Amino acid sequence: MRPTQMTVGMREVERKARAWRERPHDEAGRYLGERMIPAVIGPEKRPWIVDHHHLALALHLEGVEMVLISILARLDHLPKKRFFAFMDAHNWLHPYDEEGRPCPWKDIPHHVGGLIDDPYRSLAGDVREAGGFAKTQTPYSEFLWADYFRDHIRRKALDSEYPEAVAHALILARERDAQHLPGWAGQSPIR
User: What pLDDT is attached to residue 41?
Assistant: First the structure.
């Protein structure tokens, strides 16, 4: 499977890998069936996953060779240039590196094993899990939050003071400066 993004939060990948290891072995099929990976069939009839990259990488690292996918569209008839234009128009691509910088779509890894760590994406996931913002249907919304936190929390703090960084990010997530972000759970002033 081909990813449609360049980065993941490795803390989240590790949690998903641990959940896979800790589930009862006789429930593997059910576990995977409840977590189908949405994909688009692209050039050369390859599936391009458009969500659940963290789970896909966790399963890959755990040695799982087959997963269930849910096909959202069949675009294998399109030339690559048109395929990527379509994917971009539907917000099914996120070609940004671990520092939040845009990159050419050609830089997206060819396999989930090539995804790299963006620690701010882990931070965003942990803040969402702690109730800092709501899960939404907006594609790549956690990356928008990651960029917001990237502007307010030093990178070094994510390595040496992670629990404190999460606590700080929870406060930042409620501020009015973040109200433009999907799932914002702060309070708007009453007028």
Answer: 98
